[in-house]
Amino acid sequence: MTNEELLEKGTRALEEGDAKAAIQLFEQALKGQETAEGWLLLAEAQIESGAYAKARKSLVAGLHVAPDETELLFALGDLNFEEGRNEEALENYQRIIDLDPEEIDALVSKAMVYINLDDLDQAENTCRQALSLAEDSAFALNALGDIHIAQGKAAEAVACFERAAELEPEDPQPWLSLADLHYDAGHLDQAESCCLKGLKLDPGAPSGYLTLGNICLDLDRSQDALENYQQFLRLERSPAAKQIRDEVAAVVEGLK
Questions:
Q1: Residue 237, pLDDT score
Q2: What CATH number belongs to 172-256?
Q3: pLDDT of the residue at 238
Q4: With contact defined as beta carbons under 8 Å apart, do 82 and 240 qualify?
Q5: Fold match, 1-65 / 172-256
Q6: Which of 117, 169, 187, 210 has the highest CB neighbour count under 10 A?
Q7: CB-based contacts of 118: which residues, under 8 Å, 6+ apart?
Q8: Dist. CA 4–CA 88, nearest whole Å
Q9: How many C-beta atoms lie closer than 10 Å to residue 171's C-beta?
Q10: DSSP tag of 171
């Protein structure tokens, strides 16, 4: 098979959930020719299989081949963000912005890193910079909503998420964020309704099952809570979520 055929076959394997086969095919393709696309696809398959350290090496190798490839920079930035390597993530996103100052997603991603760093002023300024370039960016509005939550501005956060839901009706994130806000406010019926809408749009969203588990627990629906917590544990594989996974696992044991 040619390198292109190997990459195509590996992509199909990854789409079908066979990360192991995809990795083998991508590695075979890279032996024939190192390309940015090949390294990116290999990293995606490695992330899917939980091999985060190997994925990092693949992304770095890809950037040696193509230092200005934004997809590689985004992937490395996102991986660093997930692993709590905030300063490195900032560098990755800033590199993209240096290449294209109007790259909205990079600006929003940078703002989200500032949230992790508890620099809410920088986070808001960066997010508003993105919105000045694209006022109807649902991604930016969701991020601004998260910033307002961190600032204790619940009403402003609700407005951001509701606007994002209007702009992107198929995006589950604003509904899941609204569910969290309603839950924190004690509005359990509204929280459950929003959560179910979000999970209908994305049945694979781990955070939705965590919120729904909390709602069910507060409503004394222990069996429903148990099932949702278990689904959260099945789906949540982010290295940054270890602490919350451990906490939920302890609750699950108590509910059994």
A1: 83
A2: 1.25.40.10
A3: 82
A4: yes
A5: yes
A6: 210
A7: 150
A8: 32
A9: 17
A10: -
Assess whether pLDDT exceeds 90 at residue 241: no
For domain 68-167, the CATH class is mainly alpha
Element (H, E) at 226: helix 222-235
Whether residue 81 contacts residue 113, with contact meaning beta carbons closer than 8 Å, is answered with yes
Q: What are the tens digits of pLDDT across the range 71-108?
A: 999 999 999 999 999 999 999 999 999 999 999 999 99
DSSP-assigned letter for residue 69: -
Per-residue buried b or exposed e for 94-128, using 16+ beta carbons within 10 Å of the residue's own CB: bbbbeeeeebbbbbbbbbbbbbbeeebeebbebbe
Query: How many CA atoms are closer than 13 Å to the CA of 124, on its beta-carbon side?
Result: 13
What the block records as the tokens of 247 is 């906490």
CATH number 1.25.40.10 given to 1-65? yes
Q: Is the dihedral of CA 145, 150, 154, 155 positive or negative?
A: negative
How many residues make up the chain in this entry?
A: 256
Tokens of 186: 């004690």
Residue 58 one-letter amino acid: S
Q: Is 196 exposed, middle or buried (0-12, 13-18, 19+ CB in 10 A)?
A: middle
Q: Which of 43, 52, 38, 47 is nearest to 7 (CA)?
A: 38
| 30 within 8 A of 59, measured Cβ to Cβ | no
Asked whether the beta carbons of 130 and 137 are under 8 A apart, the reply is yes
